[in-house]
Amino acid sequence: MNDTLSKEILTDDQIEQDLLKNINWGNKFKLWLAFLAVSLIICLYFYYQQIEHGLGVTGLHDYVSWGIYISNFVFFVATSLIGMLISSVLGLMNVSWVKPLARIAELVAVAFAMVAGLIIITDMGRPDRLLNVFMHGRVQSPIVWDIAVVVTYVAISILLLYIPLLPDIALCRDKLKNVPKWQQKMYKILALGWKGKAKQFKLMNNYTRILLILIIPIALSIHTVTSWLFAMTLRSGWDSPIFGPYFVSGAFVAGCAAVIITMYFFQKNYKLDKYITIDHFDRMGRLLVLVALVYVYFNINEIIVPAYKTNTADAKHVQEMLSGHESIMFWMVQLGGLIIPFLLILFRPMRRPLPLMLISIVILTGAWFKRVLIVVPTQLAPYYPIQNVPEKWTHYMPTVPEIAITTGSFILVLIIMSVLAKLFPVIPIWEIKEEINHNKN
Amino acid sequence: MNYFKYYKSIILICLCSLVMANVQAQNEWEVTTEQDKNLSPFMFDDEMVLEGKISYENSCTSCHGMPGQADYTPMAPPPGDPGSNQFQLQNDGALFHKIKLGRGAMPKFEDVFADDETWNIIAYIRSFNENYKQPIPDLGGVEIPKYDLKLAFDENVDKLVVKVFSKEIPQPEVEVSAFVKGTFGKLLLGKIQTNELGIAYLDVDPKLPGDAEGKLHIMVKATKGYALAKLNQKMKIVQPTIRKSAIEGRHIWSTDKMAPIWLKVSFFITIFGVWAVLFFIVFGFRNIKKAGREDDVMIE
Predict the structure, then answer these.
(1) Spatial separation of the C-alpha atoms in residues A430 and B261, rounded to whole Å
(2) Contact A159 B281 (CB under 8 A)
(3) Could you list the residue ranges that cross the membrane (chain A) (predicted)?
(4) 0.90 exceeded by the pTM?
């Protein structure tokens, strides 16, 4: 029984009509896309500047060589992990209320994972030498592992988005006659001659199942390996054996928030309140509380264990966080971005769509700054003191091009998600039909 | 109130010592002719200068400063710069005597340094005087012997054997000291006098690290009066040391060649395994297509 769906009796035709409604190139959407495109072009201009003049246009230097680019990369990888939690873990456990959300989660996963790879390239001073990473990479290097698993994760996420989409693509092919020709052609190719036959469903279910199982270790490893980029380095604040689970638990928090925000905008823009209900927000809010609790637990471990030892380099790093130079950002992120929002969501009224969406934006912002706190301060506290260097090397402040390029990565995510949501139904139509038929019986 | 008392007494003590020092300064620092004529029983060499430098820096620099730099501590009377003419015009015997007995603020070093150590310091001070030529006593026609050294190693008892000859006659009662030269200094094996056969035995620890051929760089010095002989020789004494590269062993991250096989295997098997599954699924699209073309009858 799925009790999150609307109690109204919906006919198949009505469901199709409701859920295919978003597939059109309305003027509003064109305006939105044009806005995104112009913003992206502005950001790309700054990237052109960076290629022209090198990484000198950024605030990066000899000590902080991983600034907001890599923080942003970690954040994107983190956010993309939610696809695995919702569609795979909850899906395999037959948690039926997530079914309408699975595709949205996959959409978030694909968009963020794809752009994450590009962000690494923006951190390279000579992107033309990218191929050397593959040609001369050492198998011992966590960076090589990271590239391997991120690419694999993107591939699995795309397949996991695509394969359960087959019946819906076929539906688009059959029902949508007033879309451009190229789009009809695209549906025809992508539908793979889908006729809704039992054997086709069987194959689709088999492949989906394989992918759902395969994605769990791959998704866990992408963020664990990302954490190893730091944890395998002997630096105070990074040299921690719990970095893997710490990152993964943090990833679920960021991902849940991202899915809630996406859900909200899809529901409002595409009038999907019969399919994404208040109950869905309520449950996602509870899921967010659960993952936030796990994350708080890891945060406590990550701070109290080194802080107890008072005189190690790690303890000094923690001291900088708790009461030193980084303390304002630290407490804003921990209290404002994690503890207070999570306490608020404990109350049912706060789990209604609008408040939950707003709280999620706060959490997502906090999660972004949290990554900066993980990446940057450690580099400013090397074991050998920073001396005989230009004064500006003793701190780090991102420059305008750096911020613009980082913003560009977000715009790119929005473009990918908007376009995909315009080409395909964001709610799995065939699964909803099945679900409602099941309810009726 | 208490502070005042302290200040008063401190000022008083300072004044007293100033007066005392002046009184003493007025006295001549007397050295008898015999003491003045006293000569070093050793020829000053680089090693004496080096050892003298260490003693000087430990015991003398605080007042006399660096010789030749005139950076002595301002005191009354001034301690003076040992590199200056005031010092260098004095005889070795006078310096020896003054270091030993001291006067006023200059402490007595008789109990601090043995005679040879005091001569080391003088050798060091003299090294700042280019015009200095060490006076040698009238030996009454006795020639300073020239020593020949022969080294051997007795591996049965792990002893270095040093034979001292002069004109092929074994020399007894010669002071022999032996060292092993290391990277950053020398290790003293021992100081001993030769026996009546002109032989000195010195213990060598057979566990000392040698070079790739098991050789130690042995430095031997033999002295008696003004006679001095030195010998540096590499001797096969210990086990060869097999030197390992600093980046050898368990450094899996250093170079591509060092990648452990288990890592390569698990990495490539995992990645290729996962991608094989993905390609299996992508090729499976054909099956989905084919299934669509089949007649429903055939399936049922």
Answers:
(1) 48
(2) yes
(3) 31-48, 68-92, 104-122, 142-165, 210-231, 243-266, 287-308, 328-347, 354-374, 403-424
(4) no
